[in-house]
Design a protein that fits this description.
The complex is a heterodimer of chains A (324) and B (405). Chain A is an alpha/beta fold and 324 residues long. Helices cover 36% and strands 21% of the residues of chain A. Chain A folds into 2 domains: 2-183, Rossmann fold; 196-323, Rossmann fold (3-Layer(aba) Sandwich), CATH 3.40.50. Chain A contains 12 helices and 14 strands. Chain B is α/β, with parallel strands linked by helices and 405 residues long. Chain B folds into 2 domains: 5-363, Rossmann fold; 376-404. Helix content of chain B is 47%, strand content 8%. The termini of chain B are far apart. The chains are: A alpha/beta (324), B alpha/beta (405). Chain A binds chain B through residues 25, 51, 56-57, 59, 61-62, 64-75, 89, 92-93, 96-97, 101-109, 141-142, 144, 165-166, 193, 240-241, 243, and chain B through 157-160, 162-164, 169-170, 172, 174, 177, 179-192, 194, 198, 210-211, 214-215, 217-218, 221, 374-379, 381-384.
Chain lengths: 324, 405
């Protein structure tokens, strides 16, 4: 057992994956000597060499396009996109090639690529450094999308993602990189594509993933002080969704609030709301409510506290649900 | 057409210039480092024809080149002619099948046979080719059944060949995307001790794409074993080469730090010689080369296109005089390396091939509807399996209705 930050847990997970499989390669901008702008790959180039921890030219489409060729050759590239808002130059390669080559080749071309993206806001950054683009990728057949929320998951999920045969967009909650937890590397991990009940409650189900899990838990604690029992699920997998635990919970509570930083319009909340409504319409006491970013460009950082869902906005939605 | 320097320059003048250049650039005078070539240095218009490597004139006369010798037996020359003739026949037949409604669309290679066969026959077993959607000739050289390609254009699949086994990637329709895949695959070869090199195909239009330029950068920086093979067929659908570049395309390479060369794309011998040299350089650790195969798309972009709206018939007539198949035929006849019986036999083989293609196309079964769910992922996800089952139940409803009618 040791106490590690989420960032360190990712670093340890990457190291373990590289030790376990010589075909695992890391690619990205500034990931070598610098160890990445968030230091997630710190020390890995020193230990595994420049051929396995590759500082690439500054070209995201080039990174993904060459990762495709390496995957065809049997490698398992793990690509770092420096910030969420910089993934778009690679969007064509991800959506048209990474996502579709397995189907196009009728399963003959392996496409084991992990695309790591630090996402979300709350760090006082300039434009393009605080976005939550997960819905773009969840909408694309052929990709899988996951988001870790804590150090223990970060350690296991990155290894599971790398070992998985399908391409995975792996979202890392950048404002939680410095959160700490006890990590037991000998524990048995949960499956990658499984959502998890993180706090039991009886009156309202709150669904969250990535950085919003902590916010949801804080809201649940605050609600408890007011005598309201909130259940919190960490979705962990955004595509495919693991609806079983979600529906079990909503059938019990009859109320659901979905929380994410991404804009609400056509975000994950919309899909979850539709699926919950289709599956357990008669169990619902209130419509599924969404707490998300507003449908604006991510604002200048002096306004981000107003833009981002926080404890109070989650509680406000919980109250609205209960009052319905 | 602008200046025709190469054709105006006599052979001895070319050799003299080549000698002068050799010391400065031992890789060859046509591997053009930054502005070192006084002839090419003056070129400003992309349609100008700077010196290009040619071993067979449009009239079928064999000429020598100081850097690119080739010595083929009569049998080898005959085999090249057979390739050219058969891929043209596949193309003509597929175009006809589209006109008759049997194919959704067809991308014709007419006029580019020599560029593709010359490049395709330079490939060795360990090499990997990355085509666009027009490299039917290269596919032929890789031993791929034409029906595997025709199925794609009929709409039954996305290409039925095994890209790993054939060392010929699936067709890529997004312009230029495959050049990065080729570079990545080549980087893989560097890392796992592979003996081959990659040959990345693209067209003149693709050279404007960011991906192609990023592929050049990655290949140069990592010294990847890859050859970029650009078929400049003068048009990106309707847009002439002037809309893509202000300089001859092969000269782009110097800005990225590797050699570029222009070859007569309608001369199968020159293309073979140039591609062989570049691939050997890549295999032996000398990094990438850009080859610009200067050719002409004699047909439409695809069967949905109408070239009469954007180019003159006279231009087509001028290029017909440079027909890649006819010039090798003229050479074979003139040099007595093939007789009438040989050409008759090729004609008969073409007819058989066309008949087989026609029959197999009309008999090609449609895919099973539920197969669209297959291979989206390595293993179907529970939610997708649910969607498939719903689809199957919905489909089954119709057959129940039919049986109860």
């Amino acid at each position: 057992m040791n106490t590690v930050t989420l960032g360190k847990a990712l670093n340890m997970g990457l190291r373990k994956a590289m030790e376990d499989d010589p075909k695992v390669l890391l690619m990205g901008e500034d990931i070598g000597k610098l160890g990445g702008v968030f230091r997630i790959t710190d020390g890995l180039q020193k230990d595994f060499g420049e051929d396995r921890v590759i500082d690439t030219p500054l070209a995201e489409s080039g990174i993904l396009g060459t990762a495709v060729g390496l995957a065809m050759r049997g490698f398992r590239p793990v690509v770092e996109i420096q910030f969420d808002g910089f993934v778009y130059p690679a969007y064509d390669q991800i959506v048209c090639q990474v996502a579709k080559l397995h189907a196009r080749s009728r399963g003959r071309l392996p496409m084991s690529i992990v695309i790591r993206i630090p996402f979300g806001g709350g760090i006082g950054a300039v434009e393009h450094h605080s976005e939550s683009p997960e819905a773009y990728f969840a909408h694309t057949a052929g990709l899988k999308v996951v988001a870790c929320s804590n150090p223990v998951d970060a350690y296991w999920m990155i290894q599971q993602a790398i070992a998985h045969p399908d391409p995975i967009v792996f979202f890392e909650p950048k404002r939680r990189y410095w959160e700490k937890a006890e990590l037991d590397p000998d524990a048995t991990p949960e499956p990658l594509f499984a959502s998890r009940l993180v706090r039991e409650g009886s009156q309202v189900t709150v669904l969250a993933y990535g950085p919003m899990v902590k916010t949801a838990l804080q809201a649940a604690s605050a609600a408890e002080e007011e005598g309201i029992s909130v259940e919190v699920l960490d979705l962990r997998t955004v595509s495919p969704l693991d609806m079983g635990p979600v529906l079990d919970s909503v059938r019990r509570t009859g109320r659901c609030v979905v929380v994410h930083e991404a804009p609400s319009n056509l975000g994950l909340g919309a899909e979850l709301s539709a699926r919950i409504t289709e599956a357990c319409f008669y169990d619902l006491e209130a419509p599924v409510l969404r707490v998300g970013g507003y449908d604006t460009p991510y604002p200048p950082s002096k306004l981000e506290e107003d833009y981002l869902p926080d404890l109070d906005r989650v509680l406000e939605a919980v109250d609205r649900s209960l009052a319905f | 057409m602008g200046g025709r320097r190469a054709e105006e320059t006599t052979l001895s003048e070319v050799s003299e210039l080549a000698e002068q250049e050799f010391e400065a650039n031992p890789f060859g005078p046509h591997h053009d480092p930054v502005g070192s070539d006084p002839i090419k240095g003056a070129e400003q218009n992309p349609t100008d024809q700077p010196e290009l490597v040619q071993l067979l004139t449009p009239e079928g006369e064999r000429v020598e080149h100081p850097d690119y010798a080739i010595d083929l037996s009569a049998e080898e020359l005959q085999a090249l002619y057979r390739d050219l003739a058969l891929v043209r026949r596949i193309d003509v037949e597929a175009t006809a099948l589209q006109r008759q409604g049997e194919l959704g669309i067809w991308a014709s290679l007419l006029g580019q046979e020599a560029a593709q066969i010359g490049a395709g026959r330079a490939l060795q077993p360990d090499d990997m080719a990355f085509p666009t959607y027009r490299e039917h000739g290269v596919a032929w050289c890789r031993g791929i059944d034409p029906m595997s390609i025709i199925g794609l254009f009929r709409g039954v699949d996305s290409g039925a060949w095994d890209p790993i086994e054939t060392k010929f990637n699936l067709y890529t329709i997004v312009i230029g995307a495959q050049t990065l895949h080729a570079v990545g695959y080549a980087m893989g070869m560097q890392r796992d001790g592979g003996q081959g090199a990659c040959l990345a195909f693209f067209g003149d239009g693709a050279t404007s794409q960011g991906d192609v330029n990023e592929a050049f950068i990655f290949a140069a920086v990592f010294d990847a074993p890859v050859v970029f093979f650009c078929q400049n067929n003068q048009y990106a659908i309707s847009e002439p080469i002037e809309k893509q570049t202000r300089i001859p395309l092969y000269r782009r390479a110097s800005g990225f730090g590797f050699p570029g060369i222009r070859v007569d794309g309608n001369d199968v011998l020159a293309v073979l010689a140039v591609t062989r040299r570049a691939m050997e350089a890549a295999r032996s650790g000398q990094g990438p080369t850009l080859i610009e195969a200067y050719t002409y798309r004699m047909g439409a972009h695809t069967t949905s296109d109408d070239p009469s709206r954007y180019r003159l018939a006279s231009e087509m007539e001028a290029w017909k005089l440079k027909d890649p198949n006819e010039r090798l035929k003229a050479y074979l006849v003139r040099s007595g390396q093939a007789d009438a019986a040989f050409f008759e036999a090729i004609e008969a083989e073409s007819d058989e091939l066309a008949a087989r293609i026609r029959k197999a196309t009309v008999e090609m079964p449609d895919p099973e509807p539920a197969s669209m769910f297959d291979n989206t992922y390595a293993e179907i996800t529970p939610e997708l399996a649910e969607q498939r089952d719903t689809f199957l139940a919905y489909q089954a409803g119709f057959s129940d209705e039919a049986s109860h009618a």
